[in-house]
Design brief:
six-stranded parallel beta barrel; mainly beta; single chain; 12 strands; about 0% helix
């Protein structure tokens, strides 16, 4: 019987190679834009409303939100991102920094930065944002009011009188 610790064995004993440990991921928080857009939260903190959950009422907070269930009422997350997932159904007015629509939204969206309606998404309501993106295949019915960053607050007041919003129907 072969014993590895016996002197005079023909095969040299090689230690098991050690695997280098990967460096710990470092995360640098995004810096607020020079336009004074206000506080920006890290994308690492995101709450989720799962497929089987139904929320009726007002949703407020200070972290980003991913909705895959149903929400009825109001969503007020002014410095954060609201993402409506493919299974998400929202019947609410949304106030956020960024709104991404992959599911169905019935209500007005007010974003200090941008509104994205992806190809699977559906938005019925008015949009007030600095930027908007509507992919091919997406459904949108409502008005669009593009406001320059810093020119408005999220309560509807503006630094300059705004022109009548252009109505766009798709």
């Amino acid at each position: 019987m072969w014993k590895p610790n016996q002197p005079g064995s023909n095969s040299p004993s090689t230690p098991e190679p050690t695997r280098p440990t990967p460096p710990a991921p470092s995360y640098e928080a995004p810096r607020a834009a020079a336009t004074g857009a206000g506080p920006v939260t890290t994308t690492g903190e995101q709450a989720t409303i799962g497929k089987s959950l139904v929320v009726k009422g007002e949703v407020t907070g200070s972290e980003s939100l991913y909705i895959d269930g149903k929400v009825e009422g109001a969503i007020n997350l002014p410095g954060n991102r609201v993402t409506v997932g493919r299974n998400g159904q929202v019947a609410a007015n949304i106030v956020a920094r960024e709104v991404v629509v992959l599911g169905k939204v019935r209500g007005n969206c007010q974003a200090s930065d941008r509104v994205d309606i992806r190809s699977e998404g559906s938005l019925t309501g008015d949009v007030i944002a600095a930027r908007i993106s509507i992919e091919d295949g997406a459904f949108f019915k409502g008005g669009i009011d593009i406001r320059k960053p810093g020119g408005t607050d999220l309560k509807g007041g503006s630094a300059q009188p705004a022109a009548e919003p252009e109505k766009v129907e798709a």
